[in-house]
């Protein structure tokens, strides 16, 4: 049994997981977030996030332990062998809270300590199973990691070795969702969710306006042979469109929703095209997706279709395991965790997807 701790951004999570066949069973998964506090500032304030995490991390860990079988946490602790923690990438203050807590608890409770790369945790969420006989990814695999801070394509070979193939040169896909949502007046925070909502709400009028005015946002680098991506230009194109409409007094909520739809499609077109190229180049057996943007329904549908067409098995985490959570860190410890000595573990905010 592994007690996993996640604290890279504004979420504080603890989970208990174990190996289950070739996959991972989640016994408990608890999360506290300071999202509401960040809403009024239009983004995550690192100092506020870290202060909140200091307050909630121990109660969250206790709750995760007590949820395993409903016994007192001191009892449940006896079944735990290992403490797993994210050591990066993320915000320094937040990472420090998780890493230092894990080190102290591993020392006092005499448990093994395992470090997990947050991005690998996002991919490892694909090994979490609901039923024992459920399939887990077969290697080799291409992984598309799409979150608020990262957009990368990685290859996991048959021996479980990870290789970085390409990624964004500027904004991450999730960051582009967040910034564009703000420009479209949809939300100050968690833009991806709001853009997806607007996309589903847009009516006939909005769609006809897009067609009549021939509004097409760019699909940056979609034709280039490399697996590099770029999303900052797309956000700027949204800005220009909003400014143009507002100057001409043509802006309306419906047009904002129509632009949100076009934006979502543009991002998904690029992600799918690059994933298609990666599959073509590497000929993997499986395709995996992970990270907050992997919760996007259009992206999930389009990747599913692509995998079918290209004859690879497709794995996507359940929605609750897409955005940051501790169960995926427990899964990461099982799939590719590294045991460390307490004195050797350091938080690393700029850790790469393949370290
Ligand atoms: O993985 P995550 O929870 O945190 C990081 O590791 O960054 O990802 C958060 C990102 C945010 O940018 C958020 O807008 C985006 O994931 N996101 C979505 C959706 N849900 C969350 N983007 C598009 N569609 C969604 N449904
Ligand atoms: Zn994340």
Q: Quick one: biggest sheet?
A: 6 strands, mixed
Give the mean pLDDT.
93
Cα Rg: 21 Å
| H/E element sequence | EEEHHHEHEHEEEHHHHHEHEHE
In what order do the strands lie side by side in the largest sheet?
3-2-1-4-5-11
For this entry, what is the oligomeric state of its chains? single chain
Bound ligands, each once: 5'-O-[(R)-(carboxyoxy)(hydroxy)phosphoryl]adenosine, zinc ion
Percent range for β-strand residues: 15-25%
Distance between the termini: 26 Å
Name the structural class: alpha/beta
Quantity of strands, as a count: 11
**Helix run count:** 12
Low-pLDDT regions: none
Helix coverage percent of residues? 40-55%
What shape does the CA trace take?
Answer: globular
Structure description:
Helix 4 (92-109) links the parallel strand 4 (82-88) and strand 5 (112-117). Helix content is 45%, strand content 19%. It is built from 12 helices and 11 strands. The mean pLDDT is 93. Strands 3-2-1-4-5-11 form a 6-stranded mixed beta sheet, sandwiched between helices. Helix 2 runs parallel beside helix 4, helix 7 crosses helix 10 (253-282) and helix 10 (253-282) packs parallel to helix 11 (297-310). With 355 residues, it is α/β, with parallel strands linked by helices. Zinc ion binds at residues 118, 122, 147, 291, 324.
